Amino acid sequence: MIDKELLNILACPACKADVKLEAEEIVCVKCQRRYPIKDDIPIMLIDQAKMPGENKAGDQR
């Protein structure tokens, strides 16, 4: 589980907006990129993010 204090200091690396926790992903409130969480560590890399409408990173629905 991601600590609330950590979540409060994180920002989307793509657009610098705030993020929120949804299920097992960190979601940008502005651009809606979804960053995975692996072993309780948020992977905040743009190339690892899923865009809105994507099932897997780089995979269109």
Description:
A hairpin with a 2-residue loop joins strand 1 (19-22) and strand 2 (25-28). The chain has one helix at residues 4-9, and strands at residues 19-22, 25-28, 34-38, 41-42, 54-56, 59-60. The longest helix is centred in the N-terminal third of the chain and has 6 residues, at 4-9. It has a single domain (4-54), classed as Single Sheet (N-terminal domain of TfIIb), CATH 2.20.25.10. A four-stranded antiparallel beta sheet has the order 1-2-3-4, with no helix packed on it. The radius of gyration is 11 Å and the shape is globular. The protein is mainly beta. 10% of the residues lie in helices and 33% in strands. The model is unreliable at 57-61 (pLDDT under 50). The protein contains one helix and six strands; from the N terminus they run αββββββ.
Short description:
This protein is mostly beta strands.
